[in-house]
Amino acid sequence: MSKGFCERDADSVVVGLGSPIMCDDAVGLRISEEIQALGLPGVDCCQEAVGGLDILPVIHGYRYAVIVDAIQTMKYDPGTVLLFKEADFEEAVAGASCHDVNLPTAVKIGRQMDPEIMPEEIRFVAVEVQDIRTMSETMTPAVEAAVESGKSAVLHILKELRGRAPEGRRRPASCRPSRGPPRSGAPA
Length: 188
Fold this sequence. Notes:
Rossmann fold, 5-stranded mixed sheet, alpha/beta, single chain
């Protein structure tokens, strides 16, 4: 397999979002850590406490991205694992404030500004949480119990995305590795 799109060595990234000290908000971080511990070839994992446009440099250059985060809809029991695609957030993009860029809006802006270095597909795994306001390094029992289900969901998505035949997407010239200056004695 060729090197990942842009300068990345992997073709996929799992990004866990959250705060390790805000109770259930750590669930995305924990799931990403669990995936990272598996050492899957071609899959990078990172844990980030970023939001808005700051997510873009984290996912630039990968063919696929899976973003894992806490969600609080109050429509599901805590610990429920929800799967989303970009299209599921169309309303969230339309209603976003220009002063507070949410994740779906950031992705849309990234696709408009730098489409050639954005992932071909971005999926979201969200875990319904109970408490994201209490300062604690311990998640509630229902959310802690959902880490394994969240991990399974991410693995399923990665298998689905990476199992597809490559679409022949080429790296744009701006992302191709530089050859660097010629070595002494080497032809230019």
